[in-house]
Amino acid sequence: MARVVHQTKPVAINPLKSSQPLGAAFAYLGVNGAMPLFHGSQGCTSFALVLFVRHFKETIPLQTTAMDEIATILGGADHLEEAILNLKNRTKPSLIGICTTALVETRGEDFAGDLVKIKAKRAEELAGTEVVLSSTPDFDGAIEEGWAKAVTSMIEGVTIAGERPRDPKKIAILPGWHLTVADIEHIRETVESFGLTPVILPDVSGALDGTVPDRWIPTTYGGTKVEDIRTLGECFQAIAIGEHMRGPAEALQTRTGVPYTLFQQLSGMKATDRFITMLAMISGNPVPAKIRRRRAQLQDALLDGHFHFGGKRIAVAAEPDHLYQLSTFFAGLGADVAAAVTTTGTSRILQKVQTEVVQVGDLADLEAMAQAADVDLIVTHSHGRQAAERLGVPLMRVGFPIFDRLGSQHKLTVLYEGARDMIFEAANIFQSNQHQPTPEELNPFRNRETDNDSRPTSFTRH
What we know:
This protein is of the alpha/beta class and 462 residues long. The longest helix has 21 residues.
């Protein structure tokens, strides 16, 4: 069991985490026709927007209530109402997802009460648009919490309450924030290969998959349809991926009676076997041949790759669930997770991370721990590149944001194929950075001492 060490520094140096409202906006971006709305200043929104654009290299729909000094003091209900109406009139979204920021949260306003009044007062004008709210102050939590809160708000605010007749072929998938576009696409295809219909919430694979529409669309395009969110109660089973998705899954079960199964990660052989077995049991169909073949490919990759992982020391910095996934992956191949840093210390999954100590901190903590442990590989997002350069250690880029490489959203990390690809990526990094001895180092006589007659007087074996 890992021991969690909380942060004591007064400031963050080279921050690791991104904010809760960014995580909530990320989830809203996975809904078709949605518009995330930051309730705060323009600066809060601009920072998140820059990270999204640099990571995905796409146009990101993101708006703000643009709170100024007077509104911050007197209250922002009027700004919130005006922003909602402007978005409705100009972009006609199917869903407006409100993410609060630290600026308005510190004032202690009743956002939920204000939104109820706005929706009642403007019911006719807002017809056809769902408006949901997530309380996501910047000073608390990180991407994980914001994502989970946004998904919960959509379930509690949009999904029809009460038990309904359930379709035995319909499965709700609640993916964690750390699953890439490629991961979600792969999960959908896998579920469909069993003759099942997946309803994925949120589905960033439809909205952030790098396609170019034939016309300008001011909102998200692709992703989960609002009508599918409304009818989640018709699903036979819900599958949540990541410990932070337990809350949304429980909210769905409470609201509709749909049972859920939680997978804490889907990058290992055992977890994937359990996932595939569950799909086969629900569908009543045998495992397709292509999935069996992918499993055999992973077995071969494990045999080929484990030689490169044995004895390697790894430093990992990531959000709690992502940290658990990565530590399980490396430890399962024989590597030692010698340094582990995360963003928040509240997740129950941290105690299961495959290491002795998990430090809640920043990338400066990771650099110090990596240097002390003499690691062979650093695993984190693109902001870790300076630390890797200073230490002379290769960097494996994971998570968010990755802005100095193309195609990060299309990297596969889950199920048999994703685990296979991760083995190859890490093993290739090890191979390309291993020390090659020179001919002088291989010469056993290089350190011998000779006298004037060139006869050896001492000999050191190497």
